[in-house]
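Hi R.,

Here's the chain you asked about this morning:
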Amino acid sequence: MSLIYEFASLAAAKAARITLDLNRRKSPPRVAAVSYGPNKDQQITIYFPKKRRYKPAVLYWSGSGFLGCTGDERAAAHKFNRLGWVFIACGCRHMPLHPFPAQIEDAFHSAEAALGFMQETGMGKEIICAGSSSGALLAANVALDSLTRASFGIEADIKGLLSVGGILDAEHFFTRMNSVRRGIISAVSRSSIRGIMTFSPITMIDEDTDVPVLCIHGKYDHITPYANAMRFIRRLNGITCRRLGSMIEIDDVIYRHFRLTHGLWIEDPSRSRIQREIFRWLGTLG
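And here is the predicted structure, written out as tokens:
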């Protein structure tokens, strides 16, 4: 039955995306693109709202397991722009042509490009890092790894981290899957599982961490276990002794992994409780 729910929800998400694309053709968004490398995917796309209401810009990394673009950033940009946020979609090179950790490197390069663009256009340096699924792992690395940010010359004021079905505890993520799936991931990424775990966001938390975090995760997520996000939030709040981390727990079988990461931003905002809670939280940061 859960598989039926999954296919039905993906079909609905696809239909909604087509409708959104048609509306976009009627009134194209204000966008700008900046390349930060020779590969076509090494590009950031800046979506401007009609009227900017919030100072931080949202840097967003899409999910898809580093294999390609899911298109969810366009739908997300529409929702953020509608409420007055500047939205910057950060692209990265894809596996298997570009072995891991090329994607981690590109996350920092894209953040560097975004901050450069923001400073050149007088937008300041306040950012919110956001991402879905594997993209949330990239967003978390940029938000939490201050040493690597410094090595890239990224001078940013990190106001928050938003994770949608994100991989935040890589060790928990990999140890819960069977050996065949781990072998496939290792072959596609051309990296060891242990090497990927090196970039696990949960290991980057320490007493000096001061980034507010919101995790959105479904209890029926069949790809990235719900406990993966819960373990991250508990560690964040425990080590820092502050209530920096919070969660939106989705106790609905329809919201399995792909329905959440591919379909959240194409929901009707007037009916989406999840979107309302996300933007309420974001409003406290901006």
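One quick note: Residues 169 and 231 are 7 Å apart (CA to CA).

Cheers,
M.
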